[in-house]
Amino acid sequence: MSRSCRLHLPLLSRGSAFALLCLLLRTLEVDALNLTLNNSHNATCLRAQWQMNFTIEYETLNHGLKNVTIQVPSNASYSGSDCGTNDNISQIKVQFGSGFFWTVNFIRENSAYFIDVISFSYDTSDNNAFPDAKEKGKVSTTFEVNTIGVPLDEFFRCRSVMTVTERNVTHNYWDILVQAFIQNNTISTKEYLCDEDESIVSTTAVTTMPVPTAKPIPKERPYPGTYSVTSGGAVCLLATMGLQLNITKDEVTSLLNINPNTTDCHGECHKESATLRLNDSSNEYLEFLFAVKNGNRFYLKGVNVSLTFVNGSDFVAANNNLNCWDAPIGSSYMCNKEDTIAVSDTFQINTFDLRVQPFNVVEGKYSTAEDCRADDDHFVVPIAVGASLGGLVILVLLAYIIGHRQQSTGYEQF
């Protein structure tokens, strides 16, 4: 069964300017883009250093959707960048790869400068960058920013990742340092922080005690998807579940819901083991490993995950010593309530409306289910019996104490 799955951190929508996408993991060390422009008098008019990449969604020949992330190399060309023909407009142009062009315009208004318009274009005729693209040709996207006003004597800095989605292209920018319309050939030493960096600095400044682990950001219940694996033309594994990934890094926790409508699944079925892998075109995956124990029961033995984030950082976690979703072979395991699989200290999976059968699937349908509530009953019954016995003992003791006191009172009357 073929679908596609994006396991990226969820993108925030474009707000008044850029929306923040918090990085949870370490930043992959890559060379930053670096540019210094001089005007006709050989005076420095613009200085910029930043990192960026682009995730592009396009249609393939089989009418499916595919994502490709374009990294910008440090040896990109800045040909065409200039300070402008007047003091009110300047522009950075970046060319790289086979047909990728990016531009940003800066405008000056009174004593401040603004990031005005950002444009990005690419050519889907490049088979290396866009394999199996249905439509061939140049595509352009443009959006206006023009809401961040920076004083002329300051440089703009934003270490946080900022993301904007325009049409089918997602722009990601981070480690930004830029000063446009530099005055008197003097680069400023005063920085103007983006709102996201400003909040980080403020929080750090007032904090004197260690910050406790952040609570997960509330997120809506994930929509359940049904996945299947076939072998010899017949379904050998069935799984229906809503999946929510819980990732913690540097005391920050993020929740990611898996969208079943854009999830690709495949796997393998063997006599005593089975695998279900959910992945996307960028080789990111979430893998479930099932096994047989005692010859008559199956269980979830392992989970492997590999994710790539917008800035190129990656996250890997694995645990092949789990003992979850236990049920007899020939039946399915079901758990409609929210359940959690603790894969590692930094990675958990929250499941919803779960039903899985990795062995002995007949006619592509689930067999009788063993409900996870039965597991709860195994604990409830002993607790109830213990509580009853405890209550009985207490009643016997109370009866003994009362009877003893009455008898003592009777002796005192003689």
TrEMBL record:
Q: Kindly give the membrane topology term recorded for this protein.
A: Single-pass type I membrane protein
Q: Name one GO biological process term.
A: protein targeting to lysosome involved in chaperone-mediated autophagy
| Gene3D superfamilies reported for this sequence | 2.40.160.110
Q: Which residues form the signal peptide?
A: 1-32
Q: Where is the Lysosome-associated membrane glycoprotein 2-like luminal domain?
A: 223-361
Give the chief site where it resides.
membrane
Pfam families named in the record = Lamp2-like_luminal (PF01299), Lamp2_2nd (PF21222)
Where, subcellularly, is it found? Answer: Cell membrane; Cytoplasmic vesicle membrane; Cytoplasmic vesicle, Autophagosome; Endosome membrane
Domain named Lysosome-associated membrane glycoprotein 2-like transmembrane is located at: 381-411
Question: Got any disulfides in this one, which pairs?
Answer: C158-C194, C335-C372
Give the transmembrane ranges: 379-402
InterPro entries found in the cross-reference section:
Lamp2-like_luminal, Lamp2-like_TM, Lysosome-assoc_membr_glycop
- Assigned protein family: Belongs to the LAMP family.
Its recorded name reads Lysosome-associated membrane glycoprotein 2
Q: Which organism is it from?
A: Phascolarctos cinereus
Gene encoding the protein: LAMP2
